[in-house]
Amino acid sequence: MSVELPSHRSPSTSAVEASAPADPGALRVAPSPAFFERLRTIVGREGLLAREGELFAYECDGLTLTPKRPLAVVLPTSTEQVAAVVRACREHDVHFVPRGAGTGLSGGAHATEGSILIECSRMNRILEVDPADRFAVVQPGVVNAELSAAIRQHGLFYAPDPSSQQACTIGGNVAENSGGPHTLKYGTTTNHVLALEVVLPDGRVQRFGNRLGETSGFDWVGAIVGSEGTLGIVTEATVRLTPIPAAIETLLAIFDDVVPACRAVGRVIRSGVVPAAMEIVDRRTIEAVEASVYAAGLPTTAGAVLIVELDGNPIGLPDEIAAIRAACEAEGCQAIEVARDEAERLRFWRARKGAFGAMGRLAPDLYVHDAVVPRVHLPAILAKVGEICDRHRLKLANVFHAGDGNLHPNICFDRRDPDELARVIAAGAEILEACVAVGGVITGEHGVGVEKRDYMHLVFDADDLEPMYRLRETFNPDGVCNPGKLIPTTRFCVEANPKARGYGEVPIG
Amino acid sequence: MTPPPVDEERPVECPGSTPIARALHDELYTSSLDCVHCGLCLTSCPTYRATGRETSSPRGRIYLMRGLAEGRLEDASLLEEEAFLCLGCRACETACPSGVHYGEMLEQARTIVREQATDFSAARTIERFALRRIVPRPGMLRLVVSLLALAQRTGLDRLAARLLPERTAGMLALAPTVPPEVERRCMPAFTPAVGTRRGRVALFEGCVMPELFGRVNDAARLVLSRAGWEVVVPEAQGCCGALQAHAGDRGFARGLAERNVDAFAPLLEGLDAIVVTSAGCSAALRESPGLVGDGARGVATRVRDVLEFLDETGATLELSPIPERVCYDDPCHLVHAQGIAAAPRRLLQSIPGLELVAHRQPEACCGAAGIYNLTQPEMSAQVLAPKLDALIEAAPSIVATANPGCAMQLASGLAGRGVEARVVHPIELLEAASRLAAPSA
User: Fold this and answer.
1) CA-to-CA distance for A115 and A93, rounded, in angstroms?
2) Contacts of B51 (CB under 8 A, 6+ apart)
3) CATH 3.40.50 residue window(s) in chain B
4) What's the burial of A116, exposed, middle or buried (CB within 10 Å: 0-12/13-18/19+)?
5) B352 vs B344: CA distance, rounded Å
6) Contact A280, A306 (CB under 8 A)
7) Residue A196, min C-alpha distance to chain B (Å)
8) Within chain B, which residue ranges are assigned CATH 1.10.1060.10?
């Protein structure tokens, strides 16, 4: 697949595109000094960052491939400040992009041309915890793991647990509909958000949903979760809390190769057992993790390790463990270990969740890909992904949510090498195409952002995208809020893009 | 995904054109590539927590270093500010899956921006003078501490606190009460083992420790000897250089490290360990950047924190009960720089009657960070506040910590909140518990 120029560099020659309402590619007029003065009045001197170094440090999030410096960064501390900043942006015709901890992997919090970042890290208070009705009201900058830590005393936890949970924020999780290893049993963020307070792109503050989680009429909360900050800025979330299971058992099944590990996952699902999580870590990942501070004693000689977590009533767990054993042994696993205590169990998970960062040991940069296939296709798709990376001479490590069929091929590279960079992008595209070809989708949990926006056509044709544009227009009519993310820039480019007619016609390679 | 904007006209391999950029490129560019920008360090960083700013986080600071080294960022002023706003607590290293050597990079960056600095403020000049001319010179340090003791005895310090500008007065408030002369006496060069001799250790005294925490060094000497170790205290030793290196004066720090290598290397034969009572010193002596040679390696590999050493050799101490409620607070340079967290707790728990109480923030920096509480008093206080909240909530009668800076910071912070808990080094509790049980050393 040929490498295209970044959209903000391509000349806007098309009359159709030029008339488009929210083209982030259009050269924007620099805002006046009065705009920055206004921001300073709203968020205070301390809350406005605009020096060269400050803008530089905010040029990317967890995705370093497509950096873009913002015009300014504001750090509001309240909903009122967010709303006032949004109104100022509108008056001065400046785009804005919400950002949490900047751990996202699809560039959802990247600035776009002529935009400011609204960073929610200072809105980090837990406003209310109701252990009886099992909900918490939090500001968007509350860190995922810290919410769970704060409610542990009530015997509760917040179920969505992305691997970045020790740093990522609830606001970012809502935007990306984040998942995590325990998605298999507990669902993604959307299953855990009851109500939202949102600053709409026109500066109004609107509440959606309620503490009961009951929907009368349209499910607006469902629409906003996963909208990647394109419908507004979440300034408060009411989230569902889950009781900590009475018993938890974590097993490590050690395999010679990832393929039998994947097949074992299929067997487990067919057996009717619903584990809390099923994760596969391949050899290269194990080596990287075991060399890191997150080393957990995973066998570095294994071809793959399948981590299975079971939770629930302690009476039922031995039978489930037996079922897992049977499934793994039927696929010829070398050994099965059960975590002896809570400390060891947590070590396994720290190892799993530190995997992305640990792979920083293998190369200066890492592209964490994200796609989903039906579980039955996991073995074949892993072989295909391996073949694609080999062909592009790229180092690959796999660590993924096998239970969900959610792949995370981790491609090691060095962004200073333009040729390697181009190969990474080409391989990434081929992986998506291969996944879609077997009935998969282009993202499981990292979101579309800027990373996959131009691949939306692989799964959605113009007719599919049309309602998405309409929804966005309802909330964000002139596209000022997080422009250029999630859905292709304008509806017209779908028609202009020959690839958009259906992925079957896209030449692979 | 569209590819990133690689500028054909500016190959990114090339370092930036300024001297700072070139120096950063030469010294730490390769290390900066270890960071994959995952962000797992963010919440471990006290200054990120306090400000919510990416630029005040480890990831942000590394990004600035890298950007300057690559010439993609030109203005180095922000890195200079952020490098010195950093506490150097290295909690990020404990959180980093990629194994980034942040502490080392930070010292390198600080040294580079200091060396290239063109304007020298009065504060910088005083700081450098104190770190070069007073701290590493026992005579000078003794004089300064004696003057402080005199001021404290005559009440001059309280008068000064009223007359001096707020910032200077704040510094005075941090100063601990200078202990009586008897605690500041020189240690015996040789202390025999009590009972069966297990081996020999050398005790590293440090610079501030003998003057302000002589009782801690002495407690270590007594406990070690009661545990069967003969203790030598070589006279030629001196300041470890940690404060200077943290302040961006690595060249000078290296000279101090060399002096210690010269002091300890000849004693290595038959020496089981070089035992240190200050976490900041043990971390620095272990790492001694830039030192090569068998002597330096021998010294560095022999260094042990006193608590670590007693724990790993199995202290054969008879302990009498200490019925106190104790919170142990991890010094950053013990837990994050050396990975030592369990040993001090195990030792404390070995004391009968002692109730070890956990608190919410044991591994968070207290804000002392060497001389940080003097150079960045506002941020230091901001970082300390949640730690004090956690300690007050746990309500201990004694707070134990293993580093002089932390001890001073916690004592002054707790006193400021009107809390009466004493702050001690765990070795002092072990000494007290073993004093009654053991025959006198």
Assistant:
1) 10
2) none
3) 182-240+248-313, 325-437
4) buried
5) 15
6) yes
7) 23
8) 19-116
Rounded Cα distance between A304 and A318, Å, is 24
Rounded Cα–Cα distance for residues B155 and B148 (Å): 10
CATH topology of domain B182-240+248-313: Rossmann fold (3.40.50)
**CB count in 10 Å sphere of residue A289:** 30
Give the SS3 label for residue B384: helix
The reported pLDDT for the residue numbered A461 is 92
Q: Spell out which residues of chain A touch residue B13, defining contact as CB-CB under 8 Å.
A: 416
Per-residue pLDDT reduced to its tens digit, A161-206: 999 999 999 999 999 999 999 999 999 999 999 999 999 999 999 9
Nearest to A4 among B2, B73, B100 (CB): B2
Task: For residue A357, list chain B residues with Cβ-Cβ distance below 8 A.
Answer: 36, 38, 40, 96-98
- Tell me which fold the domain B19-116 belongs to: Fumarate Reductase Iron-sulfur Protein; Chain B, domain 2 (1.10.1060)
Give pLDDT, residue B286: 93
Helix runs in B117-239, H state only: 122-129, 138-154, 156-163, 166-174, 208-212, 214-226
Cα distance between residue B299 and residue B296, in whole Å: 5
Q: Measure in Å the smallest separation between the Cα of B40 and chain A Cα atoms.
A: 5
pLDDT of residue A354: 85
Is the pLDDT confidence value at B159 over 90?
A: no
Task: Give the global pTM.
Answer: 0.90
Q: Is residue A372 left, alpha or beta, with left meaning phi > 0 and alpha meaning psi from -120 to 50?
A: beta
Instruction: Measure A80 CA to nearest chain B CA, in Å.
Output: 18
DSSP state of A5: P
> How many A/B residue pairs have CB atoms within 8 Å?
165
DSSP, collapsed to helix, strand or coil, labels residue A507 as coil
| Cβ separation B97–A357 shorter than 8 A | yes
Radius of gyration of chain A (CA): 23
Tokens of A284: 């290269």
Q: Give the tokens for residue A175.
A: 């935007």
Is A431 in contact with A409 (CB distance < 8 Å)?
yes
Report the alpha-carbon distance of residue B180 to residue B156 in Å, rounded. 18
